[in-house]
Design goal:
The protein is built from 13 helices and 15 strands. It has about 375 residues and is an alpha/beta fold.
């Protein structure tokens, strides 16, 4: 009896004429995710994706990795059988024989309408056979065990355990975005949220060595490695920001420092995004969380942006963000101590409602183009794989 994984998608199936594009991208991402696990083939069938296995395949690793592929609604380790009622019954009985249960329900989905029995007829026939073979009883409402049969194309697939996927859209179907990754709790979560909407994520990290140590660089690489489980091969752009900060600190009023840092970061990140053919910038900002994230200051900061700035966490509170960070595995690393360049030289009383005119007046003391050019020319790019 052949064992394989049967993959189901949710939102992808609603894409109409573009559905094939999304399905192909999902197949591609599954292949990337399963490298080295011993899978044999990943291919599309009607409304589903099959992952066939070599005899030596690492079932546990495949199951874990499928659970991190954006676009999968649920998946199952299934048995394949010929499309005859005898073959289906035999495969189903073998599948459940060693399970402990007292009540059973059989459910059938018949995508191949050429099969001579209807879905209810298949469920009733196979159910009676299984009840006789196991000595258990039927329960149509709250059974101990559900046995599902799917009749698709030229085969029947039987399974009992439905494993929930992450959902969303396949990474890469919604274009590319640059995430401004700080090393803290919020920005990795924002990156994950964008991946779930199909965005291929690239990271930009600003650091202020020698004013700070290099701990943030190590953290960012570790975070990018964790997120590569969903994002696959990932580019990280490391931007030395100390010289820009030195100029801001020496040439501009203290209350505007953080806002001016952020405006310069946006300008630099935009140039990196343009070169990388990314279509948006992404931040981990949450409304009101810190002084630079008031509505007024966000508006002043984004005035320098030519690309859209997306803020997937804008309405979340810190507890919600921390919960998701723990779920995706970034929380522990994000909470390790490091010096954040945005917290460097922060004044005692930062402006919380700065006017655009006042910020532009302060910024006039800076040679903006030269500072952006210096930072962009000093960027180091790294590639991170899962």
């Amino acid at each position: 009896m052949e064992k394989l994984f049967l993959v189901h998608y949710g939102e992808v199936g609603l894409k109409g004429k573009n559905r094939s594009f999304f399905e192909k991208k999902l197949v591609q991402n599954i292949r990337l995710s399963l490298k080295g696990t011993g899978y044999a083939e990943v291919r599309r069938i009607y409304g589903r994706i099959l992952v066939t296995l070599h005899p030596e395949a690492d079932i546990v690793a495949i199951q874990e990795r499928l659970g991190k592929v954006m676009g999968i609604a649920h998946f199952e380790l299934a048995s394949a059988a010929a499309q005859t009622i005898d073959a289906i019954q035999a495969a189903a009985l073998e599948l459940i024989r060693d399970r402990e249960f007292k009540t059973l329900k059989v459910e059938t989905k018949r995508a191949n309408k050429r099969f001579p029995l209807t879905s209810p007829e298949i469920s009733a026939t196979v159910g009676a056979y299984l009840l006789k073979g196991t000595g258990t009883s039927a329960d149509m409402h709250t059974p101990d065990l559900r046995c599902t049969i799917e009749i698709v194309e030229e085969a029947a697939y039987i399974y009992v355990d439905k494993i929930r996927g992450v959902g969303g859209l396949p990474v890469g179907t919604s274009g590319k975005g640059i995430v401004m990754l700080s090393g803290g709790i919020d920005s990795p979560v924002a990156a994950w949220r964008m991946m779930k909407r199909g965005v291929k994520v690239l990271f930009v990290h600003f650091y202020s060595y020698p004013y700070t140590d290099k701990a943030s660089l190590e953290k960012v690489e570790e975070l990018a490695e964790i997120l590569a489980a969903w994002n696959y091969r990932t580019q990280v752009y490391l931007v030395p920001f100390a010289e820009v900060q030195r100029e801001i600190v020496t040439q501009t009023p203290a209350p505007f420092r953080v806002i001016l840092y952020r405006r310069m970061m946006i300008r630099i990140a935009q140039q990196i995004a343009t070169a990388a053919k990314a279509e948006c910038l992404v931040t981990g900002e949450s409304l009101g969380q810190v002084a630079s994230q008031t509505l007024g200051n966000l508006r002043v900061i984004e005035k320098v942006a030519e690309l859209p700035i997306l803020r997937p966490l804008i309405g979340d509170d810190k507890a919600e963000i921390m919960d998701l960070a723990q779920q995706i595995g970034t929380f522990e690393i994000s909470t390790l101590p490091h010096d954040d360049c945005c917290s460097l030289f922060v004044p005692n009383h930062p402006a919380t409602h700065a006017s655009l005119e006042a910020v532009q007046k302060a910024e006039a003391a800076l040679d903006i183009n030269a500072l952006v050019k210096l930072a962009v020319e000093s960027v180091e790019k790294k590639i991170v794989d899962d």
